[in-house]
C-alpha cells in the first residue's frame, strides 16, 4: 500500500486551486451553468427524491464535470492547459493531441459512469428508511451484520470514486487498483477527501444559517429567490469540493503511486 501524506496532499489541492483560480474559473464556468440548468429541470419536474429519473436529467452535467475534472487532472500531472496550444510542428503536436484527447475522453466517460452508478446507491439508501420503523421495533443480529457489511464495503469502494483520475492520464485502471493495495488504502483517501470537504462545507453552513436567520426574522415563508440561492450555493459547494478534492487526490496519486513516466 502506498504511504499517502494526507495533510500534504490536501494542502497541495488547496494551493493549486488558489494559484490557478483564474484558469479553473474559466474551465468550470460552462460545466457549472450546465449543472444549474439540469438541476433546475429536476426541481421543476419534482424529481428531487427520484434519483433514477434525476440521473437521466443530470447526465449532461456528469459529462461536463468529468470533462472539467479530467482537464484539471492533466494540469496536475503534465501542466497541460485547455485549450490545446499547438507548437506549429504537426509531427510533434499530433501524438500529444491524440494522447491528450484520449485521456480526456476516458476520464470524462469514467466520471460520468461513476456518478450515474452512485445515483443507484442513493436510491438504495433512500429506500432504506421504508423498513426502518419495523427494524427499530425488532432489531436483529442479521440487520446489524448487514449494516456493518454495507459500511465496510462502502469504505473499500470509496477508491472507485476516483478512477477518473488515472483514466484521465491513460493509466490502466486494473493496474491502478492493484497498485493501490488492499482495504487499508481507502483510509488515507478518505482522509484527503475529508480535509478537502470540511472547510468549504463549514463556510457553506455558516452562509446557510445566515439565510435561514433572515427568513425566520422576516416571518415570511422562503421566497423563490431564497430557495434558488440555497440551491445555487449547494451546487457551487459540490463543484468547489470536487475541484479541490480532485486536485488533492491527483497530487497524492501522482506523488505516491504513479511511476515516474506518468509524472512528467
Question: Could you tell me the number of beta strands?
Answer: 0
Q: Label the structural class.
A: mainly alpha
* Tally of helical runs: 10
Report the average pLDDT across residues: 85
| Residue share in β-strands | under 5%
Q: What's the SSE pattern?
A: HHHHHHHHHH
Give the low-confidence spans.
130-135
Radius of gyration: 21 Å
- How far from one another are the termini? 22 Å
The percentage helix is: over 70%
What shape does the CA trace take?
Answer: globular
Largest sheet: none
Write down the domain tally: 1
Which characteristics define this entry?
single chain, mainly alpha, 10 helices, 264 residues
Question: Describe it for me?
Answer:
The radius of gyration is 21 Å and the shape is globular. Mean pLDDT is 85; it is low at 130-135. The longest helix is centred in the middle third of the chain and has 38 residues, at 90-127. It is 78% helix and 0% strand. By secondary structure, the protein is mainly α. Helix 2 packs across helix 10 (224-256). The two termini are 22 Å apart. The protein has one domain.
Brief sketch in words of this structure:
With 264 residues, this protein is mainly α. It has helices at residues 6-19, 21-45, 51-78, 90-127, 132-137, 141-157, 164-168, 173-180, 186-218, 224-256.
Produce the secondary structure layout.
Layout: H1 6-19, H2 21-45, H3 51-78, H4 90-127, H5 132-137, H6 141-157, H7 164-168, H8 173-180, H9 186-218, H10 224-256
Helix pairs in contact: 1-9, 1-10, 2-3, 2-10, 3-4, 3-10, 9-10
Amino acid at each position: 500500500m502506498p504511504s499517502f501524506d494526507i495533510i500534504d496532499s490536501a494542502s497541495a489541492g488547496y494551493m493549486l486551486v488558489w494559484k490557478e483560480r483564474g484558469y479553473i474559473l474559466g474551465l468550470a464556468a460552462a460545466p457549472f451553468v450546465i449543472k444549474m440548468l439540469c438541476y433546475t429541470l429536476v426541481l421543476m419536474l419534482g424529481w428531487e427524491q427520484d434519483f433514477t429519473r434525476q440521473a437521466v436529467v443530470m447526465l449532461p452535467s456528469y459529462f461536463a464535470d468529468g470533462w472539467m475534472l479530467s482537464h484539471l487532472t492533466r494540469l496536475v500531472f503534465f501542466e497541460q492547459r485547455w485549450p490545446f496550444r499547438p507548437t506549429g510542428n504537426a509531427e510533434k503536436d499530433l501524438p500529444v493531441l491524440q494522447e491528450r484527447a484520449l485521456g480526456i475522453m476516458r476520464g470524462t466517460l469514467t466520471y460520468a459512469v461513476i456518478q450515474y452508478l452512485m445515483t443507484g446507491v442513493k436510491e438504495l439508501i433512500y429506500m432504506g428508511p421504508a423498513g426502518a420503523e419495523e427494524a427499530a421495533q425488532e432489531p436483529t443480529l442479521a440487520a446489524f451484520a448487514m449494516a456493518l457489511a454495507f459500511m465496510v464495503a462502502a469504505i473499500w469502494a470509496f477508491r472507485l470514486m476516483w478512477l477518473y483520475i488515472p483514466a484521465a492520464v491513460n493509466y490502466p485502471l486494473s493496474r491502478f487498483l492493484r497498485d493501490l493495495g488492499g482495504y487499508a488504502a481507502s483510509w488515507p483517501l478518505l482522509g484527503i477527501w475529508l480535509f478537502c470537504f470540511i472547510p468549504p462545507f463549514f463556510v457553506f453552513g455558516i452562509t446557510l444559517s445566515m439565510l435561514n436567520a433572515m427568513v425566520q426574522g422576516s416571518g415570511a415563508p422562503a421566497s423563490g429567490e431564497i430557495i434558488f440561492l440555497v440551491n445555487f450555493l449547494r451546487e457551487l459547494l459540490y463543484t468547489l469540493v470536487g475541484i479541490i478534492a480532485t486536485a488533492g487526490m491527483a497530487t497524492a496519486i501522482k506523488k505516491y503511486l504513479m511511476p515516474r513516466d506518468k509524472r512528467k
